[in-house]
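Researcher: Can you fold this with serine in place?
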Amino acid sequence: MPSKILIVGACGQIGSELTFALRDIHGEDAVIASDIKSSTSPELASGPFEILDATDYDNFKTVVSKHNIDTVYMMAAMLSGTAEKFPEKGWDLNMTSLFNVLNLGKEKLVNKIFWPSSIAVFGPTTPKVDTPQQTIMEPTTVYGISKQAGERWCAYYYKRYGVDVRSIRYPGLISYKTPPGGGTTDYAIEIFHEALKSSSYTSFLSQETTLPMMYMDDAINATISIMDAPTESIKIRSSYNLAGVSFTPEELYAEVKKHIPDFEMNYKSDFRQDIADSWPNCINDSEAASDWGWKKDFDLEMIVKEMLAGVKSLKEVN
Ligand code: SER
C-alpha cells in the first residue's frame, strides 16, 4: 500500500484548507482527513475520513497503521482565547496530542511530522518590533506556554531520537472557508462577516493593537514548502518565525471601508486585549526565507479583496 498523509484536526480552520490543498497535489485517496468529530463539510467527507482523538495514543496508532501513514500534520489545538477559559484542558489537549505524534515518530511508525507553533510563544518581555527568531520568550497565556514548551519538545525529539518534525510560528490567520475557533486574532475574520451582514462591527481589540497576520493561502504555502524542503535545509527544529502583514484594527477598518463606504467600526476590548498586548507587532522571518525559501504573496489590500469576495460567495451558496 502506498504511504499516505494524515491531517489531524481536519475540520479546523487550518486543517480543512490543508486537506484541500494536499488532496489537490497528491490526490484524494492519499490524504486521510481526521478529527474528533465527524465532518459537516461535504468537500472534506468526499475523501477518506477518520474519527480520531489525538489525545488517545492507541486510537492514533490504529489510524496510522490502517492507512500506512508516512506524514502527519498535527493541527488539533485549543487556541489562545479558549485556553484561557479552560487552562488545564488547553494544556492537556495541546501537549498530549503533541507527545502522541512525537512518540509515533520515535517508534518509527511515521517518518515526517508537522506541528504548528504560534506568535503566542512570545510574551511581554519579547522585543515587539522585528521580533528575532531567537529572543526572550516569556509567554503569559496557557496557549503560549503550551506552544513554547512544545517547541522545546520538538527540538528535543529531533536531537535525541532523530524525529523529523518541522514547525512554523503562525501569525493570526485570516480565512473564510472554515471559521476559526477561539483565537485572539479572530476579530480580523469576524469583521468581514459583519461588514457584509450588518455594516457595523465591534472589535474586541482596541484600534491601535498591531498584530502579525497572514492570509490562509500564504500559511498553507508555507506549511507545504517547509514539509517539502530537503531535511538538511531545516536548520531550526523548534519552530520558524513567519511574517505576513502587520496591521491594527483601525487600518483593517480603513481598508474594508474602501469597499463598503458606510461600514462602521466600534471598539470594546475584552479579555483578549491583554493577550494581544503581550504579543509582538511584527516578526523577523529572515531564517525561514533563507533556509527553505519562504516568501509571502498577500498584502493587506489583497487580503481584504479576497476576504470580501470569499465571504460573499459563502452567503450566495447558503
Ligand atoms: N491565531 C492564534 C490565536 O489567536 C494565534 O496563534 O490564538
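Model: Folded with serine in place. Residues 233 and 291 are 5 Å apart (CA to CA).
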